[in-house]
Amino acid sequence: MTTKTRYTTVRIETDIEKNREEQNWTKVIELAEQLKDRSPNFEYLSNFLIGEGKLERYLEEFPPVEANVHRAKIGLIEAKRFLQLAANDNGKKAGVALDAHLLLGKLHYACGQYADSLNNYKLADLNALSEKRLPVRSLRIVAESFAIKALCLSKESGSTSKYKKAEREDEMLRCFQIASDLSLLYMQELDKQQTSSNSATGTHSPQPPAINKTLSPILEQALQEAPALLLRQGKSCTALERYRATLSAVESQGIHSVRLKFMCHLAELLLRGNTCDEYKPPINSPTRDSPWKPKQYASLNQFIPRNECEESILVLLVAEAMAVRHTVLSQSAEFKEARLNAFHDATFVYDLLTLATVRWGQVTLLQESLERAMKFSFEEPHVWRQHALSLAAAGRYSDALGVFKEVIRLEPNESVNCLVAARLCYEHLDFPVEGTNFSIEAKSKELSHSLGLLGRCHLYIGIGYQLQARMCLLKQEKQALNICALDNFNNAVQLEPNDHLCEYYLGLQLALTGHISEALHHVRTALALRSESSSTLHLLTLLLSASRQHAEALEVVEAALEEYPDCLNLMYVKAHLELHEDDGEKALVTAKQMLELWKNLYEGQTISDVPECDRKSDTRSVFQLYTSEMSDKDSSSLQAHSVAASRVEHALSEVASSMSSFSPRPGPQRAWLLQMEVWLLLAEIYLALDQPADVQQCIQEATQIFPLSHHIMHMRGLLHMHKQEWAESKLCFQNAVAINPQHVKSLQQLGLVYHYMGSQGLAESTLREAAKVDPNNHITWYNLGKVLESLGEYETASSCMSTALNVETNSPILPFTSVPLCFE
């Protein structure tokens, strides 16, 4: 009979331990009561188990938070009675008093009795516990004890002594750190236990295990408080190491959400900067020097970040993989809350990833990540907008515009989305009509749902009409577009009197329509509002040159270059001013400086083939493509016929590459095109200095970059004209015009060549075509007057010469269209 009783007792004890590990507290209480009835010798153990079961079962339903304190004081009376029975001297003899005191500390914490909780941990001599291997359940009890002790210390008002306060904070930190390590170890042991169980039963079920494997609120709070307390103490470098240590621990099921939060916190800390005096990479092979330390990842081939950039992006990419893995794709109402929570976690990661990648110039990486986010971002405008912006930053402007159209649909009352789409159309896609329509749509949205952007809407509408007017060849339609642009710029100035961009564009519009003195007034007002704008200084220089104040213009551009030494636009204007002042040697020096500057700015891109990451400031070069002959109508790449011509050139160059040994230069083509423009400027200067051999060499350098550019053909034609090789020059200009029929300078020179060759009829028709394209070019009218004079049409010739004189009085050193678009 005694043997049977002992067998039953052992079986009950085994079942109790199994149910404790599985946290089946109702069953634990039931078995403990059976054990107490069958074996009075186990009374104190049974009391402890019943008290433990009642405490844990209650806290599963009502977590130990401040909102539940009053409820806990009543709901835990019975659990407290049983645990106190196990915590006396007899319980100490039975070996359960220590655990009973630890659980009483947890019970008092749940009841808001923090001093009593700390007293129980003192009675248990918690700080003197030896670091040895513990059963899984004991790991949790000890981990929670250290966490609760630290939380109780934080609730204590205590002494105001600075020394006592520092002592208490040090003890809190030590307890939080021990609790964090034990928490991670506890979860790892649970995983190991579950793996062993599956292996023993031979199951490979993908279903989650029955054991509750999520961290308790207390342990989760301890994990988060350990680095947070270090940050509050100003020990950011130590906090960084704490985050790293936690994330280096071997991952276990149930702490995914905590790891995701830690990755985001670590990334935030790294992005904040100035964490440590000097960046120190994570330790490669951490050692597990204590049985209370969690197992950490270690490998010979483990990647070790070398700087903040690599570590922040690495952490966020891992966080992205975790966040995406837990997203909910179903749009059913029953999954709404889970879907929104998962989406919130993912967007938080993506926002941090945006900061990290843009800061370090890894926009393509961001764009790829946001593209993956599209599958779970149905009808979510924030992610769609981020995706559109990343596409634009990566240079995929057409795709960005398509995504922005969807964002506009998702946010029908947001005018700012329409304005960004309009900017894309103006700045990169050469869609001025579509950009104007977006701006008008933004204005209508702003009138119904104001965001304070009405002035900016009028500004963007004006820019659209201004760009359309540049493209238009019909005089009446051109005038109407210019009037619309002027009206909108005036409205913008009235609505936003302190916005330098409104004054700048109003000045530019007046300059384009020949009102030089008024334009000067508004440009000076724009500079008063923002003196550091390089585009405004550029426009002021051109206006001064149009007023025949070339010396003053040169002073302005030189002063601007002291502020913006890497602005190719300003250097280009300076070279032309110096050339105009009959100082070709100085112009030559400036052009050579431009070539050196190009090397500093762009050579790294062309070697590494890394996409350009524009610096967001006025000091960056916004040098327009195809600006080597800045007195022609297509001097700005923003005009449709210029873009069309460049596309033809590109196609022809591809044909040339397939038929010859030519191959495109590696790297971003924009950078090479800028270099081609500098070579053509050098050729123009050498031609003015009567050095044809150097001109030929510069043309050859440009030809190796873009062999079939109409600009190169034009320069080659000028060289033949210089040598009076009329037939060859005619062929070059004809080829240039064949690629770009609106290339004014080629038309001018072709007409002049026809005149020298005696083909006056062809000369007249060619020059009239040039005048139709750009009626404000004095060279065209002067050449036409010469041709008409040779035909004996003296009265018409005189009228053309007079027009040339009138137009020249308002002609800048370079056309006003050479000023790049400015939006900042």
From TrEMBL:
- UniProt function note: Involved in endocytosis.
Q: Tetratricopeptide repeat protein 7 N-terminal domain location, by residue? A: 1-370
Q: What PANTHER family is this protein classified in?
A: TETRATRICOPEPTIDE REPEAT DOMAIN 7, ISOFORM A (PTHR23083:SF464), TETRATRICOPEPTIDE REPEAT PROTEIN, TPR (PTHR23083)
Q: Which SMART domains match?
A: TPR (SM00028)
Q: Which Pfam families match?
A: TPR_17, TTC7_N
Q: Which family does it belong to?
A: Belongs to the YPP1 family.
- State the UniProt keywords alphabetically: TPR repeat
Q: Name one GO biological process term.
A: phosphatidylinositol phosphate biosynthetic process
Segments annotated as TPR repeats: 381-414, 744-777, 778-811
**UniProt keyword Magnesium present:** no
Protein name, as recorded: Tetratricopeptide repeat protein 7 N-terminal domain-containing protein
One GO cellular component term: plasma membrane
Q: Which InterPro entries match?
A: Endocytosis_PI4K-reg_protein, TPR-like_helical_dom_sf, TPR_rpt, TTC7_N
